Amino acid sequence: MIEFVHDALPGRVVFAAGALARVADEAARLGIERAPLIAGASQAAAAAVIEQGLGGRRAGTIGEAAMHVPIELAEAARATARDIGADGIVCIGGGSVTGLAKAIALDVEIPILAVPTTYSGSEMTTIWGITEGGEKRTGRDRRVLPKTVVYDPGLTAGLALAIAGPSGINAIAHCVEALYAENANPVTSLMAEEGIRAMAEGLRAIARDPDDLDGRARALLGAYFGGASLAVATMGIHHKLCHVLGGTFALPHAETHTVILPHATAFNRDAAPEAMARIAGALDSDDAAGGLRDLAAELGAPTSLAAIGMPEAGLDRTAEAVTAAPYANPAPVDLASVRSLLQDAFGGRRPR
Ligand code: NAD
């Protein structure tokens, strides 16, 4: 019998090529009268369009954002938002920019209008993260969930394949783990499966022709579904591994996900057959783990931990950290099998 609990998150999504021009109207719709604009370094031209549209609704700029939201930047941004009496935030950029907007909203409690320009998916989640004293704290809080998200595939036209590939596979990782999550349900699985399909098709189209706007739109839709999957499903061994690797060895975020995902998927192959069938189908492959590995290779993305700066001497420590506390995952997580997974990922061998 079908039986599930689904906690739907609120939020308005506007998705269209050229939707950038609608940001000001969307801000007005939220009742925002005084919004600082947070713009990523790559988004100066698009930020100027938003600024012009916002006119008098724009109040100041918060210029600096950085990976994993250093507390110093968060505090400075919060102070600016308070000083100008902000009643909303408009942000345009990747996950780092969205992360800074979330750090403000967590404290100042004002709505976020997010315009994402990468595939991080942060704009769809209630997850925030702040780094202090070298340690990243994360949490879930509905105050940080953007009220409106404007997706404009045109904004991603300049994302080189070297960034788009790993960033997109990071979004696929959210979908893969959502499909075998302990709290997976028919709604999340539908979205997760379609997220993998849209992202894989989109990335392949971009690899063939970087100017293919339809391909860019497919990939961005995949990112949206990836973020929405991450938002509601419990993540398993893949995210745990990437969290430890990223936090301990400062490996690049999306590339770490790209390398680990085929191995984490193979790890769960026998324990989650239905998820595997859906993943493989969405990738147009006969094997989920192999299909993910082939996608990365096709896109020229990294396939080994060694290639992204992981020291081999750190593999033991990583396996110990990942198995230190129990968490939900389809296949039982034990030290020997995690260590073996890491060795495979380090050397870049095809997932078993
Ligand atoms: P990012 O925001 O740091 O951007 C990566 C680089 O791409 C930057 O140099 C940026 O300027 C550039 N860039 C952004 N958009 C571009 C575009 N359209 N064209 C060309 N260049 C562009 O990286 P990210 O991968 O988007 O986000 C990573 C961060 O997001 C991490 O801190 C991660 O922890 C966080 N994250 C949070 C969540 C969440 O739910 N809270 C989810 C996923 C990721």
Report on this model:
This protein is an alpha/beta fold and 352 residues long. Helix content is 51%, strand content 11%. The protein has 13 helices and 8 strands. The strands form 2 sheets. Strands 1-8-5-4-2-3 form a 6-stranded parallel sheet, sandwiched between helices. A two-stranded antiparallel sheet has the order 6-7. The longest helix has 23 residues, at 186-208. The chain is globular, with a radius of gyration of 20 Å. The mean pLDDT is 96. Bound molecules: nicotinamide-adenine-dinucleotide (NAD). Nicotinamide-adenine-dinucleotide (NAD) is lined by residues 40-42, 67-68, 93-97, 99, 117-118, 120-122, 125, 127, 129, 155-156, 158-159, 163, 167, 230, 253-254.
Give the helix/strand layout.
Blueprint: E1 12-15, H1 23-29, E2 35-39, H2 44-54, E3 58-62, H3 71-83, E4 89-93, H4 95-108, E5 112-116, E6 127-132, E7 135-140, E8 148-151, H5 161-179, H6 186-208, H7 213-232, H8 237-249, H9 253-267, H10 273-283, H11 288-298, H12 315-323, H13 335-347
Parallel strand pairs: 1-8, 2-3, 2-4, 4-5, 5-8
Antiparallel strand pairs: 6-7
Keywords:
352 residues, alpha/beta, 13 helices
Quickly give the structural class.
alpha/beta
Measured as a percent range, the helix fraction is 40-55%
Strand order of the largest sheet: 1-8-5-4-2-3
Catalogue the ligands: nicotinamide-adenine-dinucleotide
Individual helix count: 13
Outline: globular
Q: Mean pLDDT, as a whole number?
A: 96
The unreliable regions are none
